Structures are given as structure tokens and as C-alpha cells.
Amino acid sequence: MSCKIKFLPHNKEVSVSPGTDLLSASTMAGVQIYNSCGGDGICGRCKVKILKGEVTTDSAILSEKEKKDGFVLACRTICKVDIDVFVPEESRVEKAQILTMGEIYTPAERAAPPVEVFEEKIFEYSPLSAKLYLEVPRPSIENAVADLERIFREIRKSKTASPVMQMGLANIKKLPSLLRTSDFKITVTLGNRNETTEVVLVEPGNTADKNFGVAVDIGTTTVVSYLVDLKAQKVVSAKAMYNPQVSFGEDVITRIIYAGDSSGLDRIHHVIVDAVNDLIVSHVISDKISLNDINCVTAAGNTTMIHLLLKVDPTHIRRSPYVPAANAFPVIRAAEAGIKINPRGLLATIPNVACYVGGDITAGVLASGMSNFSHLALFIDLGTNGEVVLGNKDFLACCSTSAGPCFEGGGIKHGIRAQAGAIEKFRINPELDSGSELRIETIGNEKPIGICGAGIISIVAELFTNGIIDKSGDFIKGSSKHLKKTEEGYEFFITDNISVTQADIKNLIHSKGAIFSGIEVLTKKIGIDIHQLSKVIIAGGLGNALDIEKSIVIGLFPEIPTEKFSFIGNGSITGCKMCLLSQSAMRRANEIAQKMTYIDLSADPEFMNNYTASLFLPHTNLELFPSVKKQLKMKNVDYYS
Hints:
Largest sheet: 8 strands, mixed
Strand content: 15-25%
Shape: globular
Oligomer: single chain
CATH topology of the largest domain: Nucleotidyltransferase, domain 5
CATH class of the largest domain: Alpha Beta
Structural class: alpha/beta
């Protein structure tokens, strides 16, 4: 016996065995629902409404009104019979404006079209997989060279292969017949496997124009892919989706724990591989190519994501002494990981640095070009884990801080990821009439449905500089008509139904404190004064809407001239593309990963001291932020007297 579950408004159905929770059922149906606690029933983000049928539920954290209206938590609700479920807009993972392109621009250039990263041009063209058309000389009594050596000889003439070459037995078996039926006119597909060139495929005729690769950025939150024409050296199309592993938890630690359970690793591996395959099929359909014409894949992600992609046990990443199975994995057949391209196609992963600094950061540093800088630069990737890299061509040092999901809309009552309708900018103009002094901007200029990471930063900065919250982030009672007391305490209402709570502000303060402290400790340990930096590079989707001045106001970034900041967008996918097109870029990526010194902040007393000091707006030491001090003085706001 099974239960049929229909999800609306998606209009998707799935049959499951009785006792299956709705969150698991939604994953089976291909309906993605927010969930940041791994199904523990404590985040409240997987709220759905039962329209028809009976369920067993334990949705204790919902209000009595929500329960009366039929709402339940998907992760804590089990079907008993056939049911219809409505997924409200705030619980849906869709309409996302995921950052797919690698872009680099300064705050002053935001109004102009973004400029693509050009760092890749310094690397020679030598793709992970190349196709070569050959007209092989026929054998004769005078030239009785074996078929395999004859092909190798012609490949070497093209100077596209390394000295060491190989061909698998399956291909060798086909050579005698294939060469003679094709009149010795063939196309060979060459794969670069760790300083060895492998002839991965031999085809009759000339198919050299049909050679594609896929670059994939596997983020904790999103998965982005490029289809790259390896001969034309250009991106054909870009695709993106949310990482479906979110159903097992929004952060890497929760997913590692899940992978450690019986059959957990197998399930969480297949979910991400299926997602990558879905993106690849989407490219194939939209760009009208054959799956067999995709001959290689490069992938980058944090250390845990790459372990899960390759189905490698990540358990010891979270256990002292925190050791991954590997930082640099060999080039393998994509089929070994379950990725469906040409059956003999290759998969290369960008090398990781340490347990909590992955190949996505290696790829971002590669794309930013900072490993070639003579001047000092700071690279910051804002996400659930905030990674920071300091250095130039002479040295690279890095650290990772647990910032939490705040920058991606998590841990906020009305928080959502960056999608249409998300509030990304906020301003209070007290000179305007009451009721019209609040100005908001949403992604896509659509009706506001929640607050994204850039939005919460903008809101808290405005509340602080307008005397509505104090340096601790506590609301100042009576400071605004928009500050109202509810069952959960005081909330500042941005719209009639979207508010910011005291807990939201505290979450942001802890997140920004982790990033700022990581920057502060890293620069101090290396002996660098923050004002010696010539450039600060912000990576990640949050950077596109991020207001640097307001980020400084809350103490997320140190106070240095805003013109030193630039945004590189999705540096991970750009670095992946570079490694797809150039083996010298991949070698540089390996050099960057090996060169980077990882500083573990988890047990560092200096970090904890700095972190405690940063849990104020903008900091306990206001002298570190002279412009903020000046703003507060101009507005007659004095929190520090």
C-alpha cells in the first residue's frame, strides 16, 4: 500500500510508503522546500499547508493560528492516506536569481555592465579534453608500424600531447577495423590525466568541431554549470539550480552527520550527482548537442561538497584532528562518480586547501588573479562559511569562519535567499512624512516577499544610524512608529507583514563578527596593517547587491576606502572554466592550493577575544570606524558616551 501526495501549486505527484515524511516526499517529487535544520523541526522554514487528507504531525514551533489554518512542518509530518499539500511562497525554493556568471567590478561600476574576468588570458590554451582530426598514413611493407604506434606518432606531430601517452584496451580492440573502414581518417579525443595524455575515444571521420566540456560550481546552497565549447573557447550557456542536498541540512556539518549514518552517504551522493546530471541534460536540450560530445567536467566546491560528489566519506572533516580523505583528487572517469557525459569522459576537481577551505576558494583566487599581484590583496567569500585569503604572488594565507546562513537569508524570521521579491536595499529618510520614510528595493522590482542577505545588512545599518537600535543591537523603545511589540517581542516592520526581530539582528551581529574577526586575526598573524591592502575582493552572490558603506557601518568589513573594494561574483565557476580550457591554469590552481597556509581559528584564543569584541555595532572600539563615528555624531546618535 502507498500514499499519493500531490504538491501544489507545482502540480507534482509522488507515491510513497506510509510513514514517509513530507520533506522526503517533496525531494522525491522534485519539489524543493526550504529547510535549514536537517529535518530536526527547529528552523520552521519547511512550513506547508494540508489541503486534503490526514497526517500525523509534530509541529510544536508553529503558532496556534498557523496550526488552526492547516499549516504543518514538512519535516515533522507523516502521511497516513492520499493527501494534497500546498507549499506557500515563502517555503518554496524557486524563482532564484542565482549568480551564474563570473564578474568583476567595483562599487562605482555597478550602473555599468559588469566586466568579465580576463585573468584567464594569461594561460595557454590546452583543454582538459581536446579533439584532433588525423589522416593516418596507411601501413605498408616498408612502413609496417603497428596501428596504435602509428596513431601516437601522428598525435605527437600536432604537439598537443604530453610525452607519456596511453590508450585503453577497449579502444585498442576497435582500431584494426575502425581505421580501415574509415579510410584511416579518424578523430581522436585526448584527455589530460595527471601529466599523461590518454586517447579516450577514437571516431571515424572528422568530428573535431564537436567538443564540449562542463564547468560546475557545487556550492552548499546552489549548483551552477557552464557548457563550454572547448574548440571555440567560449561559454555556450549557463545553468543554475539550488543544491537539493539542502533537504539533508543547510550547512556542511549537518550534511556530514547525515552522510555518517547508514546509507546516508549513498543517498546524499546520488542527490548531488542527479542535480549535476540534470544541469548537463538541460544544456544538451537547450543547446541542441549530443551528450557524447561532452568529453570532460571540472568541478569546484568546498571540501565536504567534493567528498560527497565523489562519494568519499567526509566524517573525519568534523572530527579532531579534522583530516579530509584528500585535498587533491586525481582526474577520473566522470562515470566513476555517476556523472553522465561521454562514457569515457573525464572529471577533474579543483584542489582543496584544508577541511574548511575548499576548491571553490582555490578557483576564486585563481580567477581573481591575486596570486600574481605584487601588491597585497584580501579575498573574502561570503557564505555560510566565510573564507578569507590574504596575500599576493609571494605568499597566501587563509582561514575559515562559521558565519552561519545569515548572509544567504537563513536564520532570519522573514529571510529568503536572493530571489525575485527579496528586499535587498533599505533606507530610512526621517525628513519624509511618517509612513513614507521607509524606502525599499527588491530584486526584480517585484512585490516584497522577504529579506535576503544584502537586505538584512542594509536594514540593520539604517536602524543603527537612525537611533532605532543601540550598539548591542537592542531595540530602543519608542524610537519609531514601525517598532511594535508582538507575541515574540519587539519587531521593526518594513512592510505590513515583513519585519525584523531582535533575534534577526543578533544573528547578523554574530555573522558579521565572525567575518571581521577572521580578517582581523589573519592580518595580525601575518603582520599586515589593514591599511596596507591595495585591494579587497568580494566573492559570492551576496556581493552583487552588497552595499559596502553599510557593510562598514555594521562592522562587517574594516574601514578602508570603498574604491579598494571590487566584486568578482562567482569566482568559483570562472576558475573552473579556466581549468577546463587550460592545463596550465589547473597547474596554477594546484600551486595556489599547495602554497596557501591554512590558519585554524577554531581553537585560537586571539580569534575568540576579537570575536567577542566585534559583537557590537560596529565594534567595541569605535576608533576603528571613524566614518561611522562621524555619521552618528551628525545624526546626534550617541551610543558610546
